[in-house]
Amino acid sequence: MYYLNDNVKNLYRIFDQNERKDYVRLDLNENPGGLPGDFIQTVLSSVTPQFVAQYPETLHFTEVLAKFLGTDISRLCLVNGSAEGIRYIIQAFTSPGGRIVGVMPSYFMFQIYSEMYGRQFVKVPYNDDLSMDVSRIIDEMTEETQLLILLNPNNPMGNVYSDQEFERIFRVAQEKEINVLVDEAYHYFYPKTFIQYALNHDHIFVTRTFSKLFSMAGCRLGYVVGWPDGVKMVQKLCTPHNTNAFAMKIAEAVLENPVILQQLIADFNEGRQYLIDWLDKNGYRHKGEAGNFLFIKPRTNAQLIVERMKKEKKILIKTYPNVGEFGDCLRVTIGAKEYMKQFTDALKELDQKISV
Ligand SMILES: Cc1ncc(COP(=O)(O)O)c(C=O)c1O
Questions:
Q1: 306 CA distance to ligand 1 middle (Å)
Q2: pLDDT tens-digit profile of 34-73?
Q3: How many other C-beta atoms can be found within 10 angstroms of the C-beta atom of residue 63?
Q4: Is the pLDDT of residue 354 over 70?
Q5: Which domains does the chain have, with CATH numbers?
Q6: How far apart are CA 213 and CA 292, in angstroms?
Q7: Is there a contact between 184 and 212 (Cβ–Cβ < 8 Å)?
Q8: Pairing state between β 145-151 and 179-183
Q9: Ligand 1 atom closest to Cα of residue 106
């Protein structure tokens, strides 16, 4: 009989995110503007036929990244987007049927990978006021739990953990011997990090990406930080030459050019301030202390707004159903002010209660 893995057969995936190039993309937390065009041109001008012909060499870029992070290469594994690193951590550090604890709503791939490998994903819900009760997370950290997944900051809520909260959770994880994964995809939009735990302790990983602030989602590049023996296990799962030469070339240029990073952060901050001021002025409730996204409670139907934004305004945003006291919400990526203005102009027009 032809064999097909039941986990794969029963897995539900969404593959409708192509053909987005003609839209203002505020749905997947990419930078809608991207890196400066002249910077990209300069970096690519040194590309030779040999560069394209050869398999990518990861050692040099890993060393550059290690220096940037103030660590050494034994604590780093490059991955083809941090989503790949997350998958390998789940594969290596949990067993079939194994218990994985994570907050919900959250980045959906944690659940997808859990289902893909037949793991049991235990969801810790938010409070109705969209705050996260750390005791609920700790309650779920049972002796059988193999992996705890946290995000700093969380997507889509944008909430964060205080140092005391994180320390409390980590101590329980150590007592009960639960590996911890902290997803820091949105680091830099929110400067506080728990990377020092992954650099100084065993059994904790931090994953990061070049897709968000670094504006390189099209290149697919991320990394896993952890203790050397843990990192080796992740490396074992990587496909050969898993990270792209162009991605590492552009990332190296960004890392070595602090002005570019500062500009990306400044543009983001200006866009964020504009959006928050506009929402406050117009009486919108919103949530998202950190991250390059905001959660907005619309006045009218969230799903309809998303559909009309796409069709009439060529703007892509996302909707999240049943989110605590917010109910059905919009989630919008924050970009430079010009993109936020396009969004607020559209929202003003499309989110009007019809008075009779
Ligand atoms: C919380 C979180 N983690 C990880 C990722 C994956 O990022 P990438 O695979 O592009 O590095 C995303 C993407 O949106 C995300 O929101």
A1: 21
A2: 999 999 999 999 999 999 999 999 999 999 999 999 999 9
A3: 13
A4: no
A5: 6-32+259-350 (3.90.1150.10), 37-257 (3.40.640.10)
A6: 8
A7: no
A8: parallel
A9: 1
